Amino acid sequence: MKNNIVKVVSVAFGVMLLILGSVAVVAVTNIRRSIATSDWVNHTHAVMLETDAIVSSLHAGEASLRSYLLTADKRDQVAYRGSFTEMVEHLEVAKALTRQEPVPRSGILRIEELVGKRIELARDLVRTFELQGEDAARKKLQADAGSTLHGEIQLVAQKLAGEQQELLRQRDKASYLQAQATRWTVWSGLGLNVLLLFFLGWLISDDIAARRKAAAALEEANAILEQKVLERTAELVKANENLKKENLERQWSEEALEHQLYYSDLIINMIDDHIFVISKAINISRVNPAVVHTTGYDLAEIVGHPMSRILDIPELPAGDTTAQLRFDQAVKEGREIQGRRGRLLCKNGAAIPMYFNMVPLRDQNAVVGCVMTVHVRQKEQADAG
Amino acid sequence: MKKHILSIDDEARICKLIDTVLTMEGYRVSTAATAEAARRIVQSDPPALIILDQQLEDTDGLTLAAEIRRTLPDVPVLLLTGMVFDTEVIEEIIGKNVSSYLPKTSKMGAICSEVHRLLGDTPPKT
Question: Which band of pLDDT confidence, cut at 50, 70 and 90, is reported for residue A322?
Fold first, then answer.
């Protein structure tokens, strides 16, 4: 979108520059043509003026010549000579002006030819006047064939002037058309450029509006994203706090259990009575230090071994009225035994009489073993008693 | 201003955990490992609540609670111990020198709730 706008604007400005350049070229060309036309008009006027001057000098020379022939006044002689000299000078100028133009040049050359004849006739009259006298000159003057030449010169001059006038009209028309074309070119170029400027203005304003809209949409999206980030951050902070609390709770539980276990072990280990934990398979699972101390066995020699290694519990005779159960049966059925007698077997071979209590050890509802409390001292005291 | 809680326990890890949790709950916590250190804090910076263990190096919690009650009769004391007491004994103890009793096996959340209750605070929303 952005690149397209830039391309369109660039192309439009390029077209505007091209139009301006074209208008400038056309205008400069037409100005040059106008200058050339103006020069040509001046030139044509100069040719016409020189032609008129030739005819005027001819008239003046003719008049002065006639006066001289009538009066023999030297001033008239000077006058006609001067007029003829001027006529020749104008003729030379006219020839020079029409050097590049065949049509008017042929007219000028024709005038030159006629003027030459007229000058020759004048010389002949003057010669006759000076050699043969006034009457002979008058006769020649009366029979002047110069009047024919004079009229022919005027005709050629008028024709030349007419041709030049016609050329002037054509140039004037062409000049008018050129001016019109220049005017149209300039106004058309200006109009096109104005239209292009309006188009570019509309295009740029439309693009700015689109960009503003896009910027607003982007800003809104950013705000939404920022809000989501804040919400997510808050969730993460909360989750982190919860996790930290859970972790602390777990650490607390571990510490509390460890603490509790430590005190429980401390209490059990301080008891003088002999404590046995017996599994359902009638093996020893755990004992307190009093058992190790009394029997002389190491802990490794006790734990995991059958109960019978350390405890001798005689079977009850059949039909015993106390109706006490067999030890293993009591363990399996989860029943208690109170005050039953037996012996504690030591590593050195000694057998210490004792009596014990047994309570089942339950894990939830299942019996997993039993705990025995063996009383040696009380038995000894009882025996002593 | 944050309320000041004094935690007395001879186990450093227990003190550290109580400090961390109650600081998160918005309290200022001091810890003491012995009765002597606890007495100094009570004198210099009287707490709004005392959390006390029963087993201490130089005395026991109930004796120390009775001593503190003479100095700060209105400050609640929470006995937090691993030793389990009978209900009747606890009621009798609470009636004398201890405001409340919790076993150390209690959940930390329960301990925090009891602290809030004793201080008359609203628990922070989670």
Answer: low
Chain A residues with beta carbon closer than 8 angstroms to that of B14? 255, 259
- Residues of chain B predicted below pLDDT 70: 83-87, 89, 93-95, 123-126
Neighbours of A61 (CB within 10 A): 24
Q: Is A249 helix (H, G, I), strand (E, B) or coil?
A: helix
pLDDT at A381 over 60: no
Q: Which two tokens stand for residue B1?
A: 């201003």
Q: Cβ distance B103 to B78 under 8 Å?
A: no
Provide the strand spans (E) within chain A: 274-279, 284-287, 311-312, 337-345, 351-363, 366-375
Whether the model clears a pTM of 0.80, i.e. scores above it, the answer is no
Cβ distance of A242 and B17 shorter than 8 Å: no
Q: What is the pLDDT of residues B61-95, one digit of tens each?
A: 888 999 999 989 999 999 888 766 666 767 776 66
- Distance from the A237 Cα atom to the nearest Cα atom in chain B, whole angstroms: 11
Q: Which residues are registered as beta bridge partners of A375?
A: A355
Q: HSE-up of A327 (CA within 13 Å, CB side)?
A: 24
Q: Tell me, what's the ipTM?
A: 0.83
Nearest CB neighbour to B82, from listed A248, A251, A260: A260
Question: Which residues are bridge partners to A277 per DSSP?
Answer: A286, A371
Q: Which residue has the tokens 């804040």?
A: A230
Count interface pairs A-B at CB distance under 8 A.
Answer: 47
Burial of residue B90 (CB within 10 Å: 0-12, 13-18, 19+) is: middle
